[in-house]
Here is the input.
Amino acid sequence: QNVTTGGQTHGESFIYVGGKTAIGGSATINGSEGGTVFGAGKGSGADNEPESGRMSFGTNLVIADECDILNNVYGGGNYGFADEYTNLYVLGGIVHGNVFGGSNQNKAPQVTVNMKDGKINGSLYGGSNTSGTNNDGATVNVSGGTVTNVFGGGLGEDTDMEAGTAVNVSGGTISNNVYGGGEKGTVSNGNTEVNI
Here is the structure.
């Protein structure tokens, strides 16, 4: 049983976005875009609340069926994060932005992303968006669906993968490129492996 105290959830999340669900909106609140799906909590980003939005175990997030997501998808939270693991599945639907295994503006645990179907108009990242360090590695598996680019690491200059990355592509359509590392982020330790 999950227990939430002080903005932290002592447990794990299970989120399924499917059917004909539409997640939309254009407002931005505290750096969190409308039309976005998060696996972990929002968090505050305040120096005196570093644990807010935290999931003490992990997150499990599924994007499926004919859902329509206006912006981005995160295995983690905005400033929130998971401690132990993030499992993110793209099994269908359309994401008009990017998909991140990590958080928007915080760290990430061991990340596994599986894309089997659906469409991502942007790119797929194993790491975080704006900032955040991954201490336990990320694995990105693509076996179906359509995506523009695939990155093992994160997007922003302040993202870092400290335990390496692995990208495995066995199917699907990638309209641009596959990268073992990040877009602007670094892989400071561990190996970067790409299998196609």
The CA atoms of residues 20 and 67 lie 5 Å apart.
